């Protein structure tokens, strides 16, 4: 669809050696714990569902034990990742990835590149599928927003609904 609309689609490889998932998990856990600190300290987090090891309530609690030195070192590594990612990402106006692609999404969470996710149809089992457009440059939301609008005009996926919601 995009190629037919005149979009020059160029495959790229995201670097897999940046360890973005590991960095993001540490930062995300600490930031989440800080954001929900009043909830955790009040004990109200006990009312949240899904109280097993890898879920939010326990992540908020366990993140309190991330040493400050480790957190600061992860933030320094984040800066290095940003420096390494910029030459790759800035070559493109828009980068198209599957919405659940680990490396690209973790990378953009660390770099701050703008993203927008849109419906892109349905999987064979009827579940909705989506696609993410990443801005190649920081602070360039206008480009990906215009691109997303064009994608919606071309596809109409945003007008489709799963069968179970049509009743």
Could you describe the 3D structure shown?
The protein has 167 residues and is α+β, with helices and mostly antiparallel strands. Helix content is 46%, strand content 13%. The chain is built from 6 helices and 3 strands; from the N terminus they run ααααβαββα. The protein has helices at 20-35, 37-42, 56-62, 68-89, 102-111, 141-155; strands at residues 94-98, 115-122, 128-135. A 3-stranded antiparallel beta sheet has the order 1-3-2. The longest helix is centred in the middle third of the chain and has 22 residues, at 68-89.
List the topology elements.
Elements: H1 20-35, H2 37-42, H3 56-62, H4 68-89, E1 94-98, H5 102-111, E2 115-122, E3 128-135, H6 141-155
Antiparallel strand pairs: 1-3, 2-3
The helix-and-strand class reads alpha+beta
What gyration radius follows from the Cα positions, in whole Å?
A: 19 Å
Total beta-strand segments: 3
Fraction of residues in H or I helices: 40-55%
Beta-strand content estimate:
5-15%
Order of helices and strands: HHHHEHEEH
Please give the count of helices.
6
Q: Could you tell me the mean pLDDT?
A: 88
Which regions are unreliable across 5 or more consecutive residues at pLDDT < 50? none
Number of domains: 2
Q: State the separation between the terminal residues, measured CA to CA.
A: 30 Å
The major beta sheet can be summarized as:
3 strands, antiparallel
| Overall outline | flat
- Tell me the strand order in the biggest sheet: 1-3-2
């Amino acid at each position: 669809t995009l190629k037919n609309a005149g979009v020059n689609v160029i495959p790229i490889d995201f670097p897999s050696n940046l360890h973005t998932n590991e960095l993001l998990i540490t930062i995300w856990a600490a930031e989440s714990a800080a954001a929900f600190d009043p909830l955790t300290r009040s004990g109200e987090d006990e009312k949240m569902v899904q109280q097993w090891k890898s879920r939010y309530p326990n992540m908020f609690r366990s993140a309190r034990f991330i040493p400050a030195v480790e957190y600061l070192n992860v933030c320094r590594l984040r800066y290095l990742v940003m420096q390494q990612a910029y030459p790759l990402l800035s070559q493109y106006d828009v980068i198209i990835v599957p919405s659940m692609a680990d490396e690209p999404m973790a990378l953009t969470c660390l770099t701050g590149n703008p993203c927008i996710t849109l419906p892109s149809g349905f999987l064979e089992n009827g579940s909705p599928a989506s696609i993410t457009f990443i801005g190649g440059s920081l602070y360039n939301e206008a480009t990906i927003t215009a691109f997303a609008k064009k994608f919606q005009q071309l596809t109409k996926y945003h007008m489709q609904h799963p069968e179970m919601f049509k009743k």
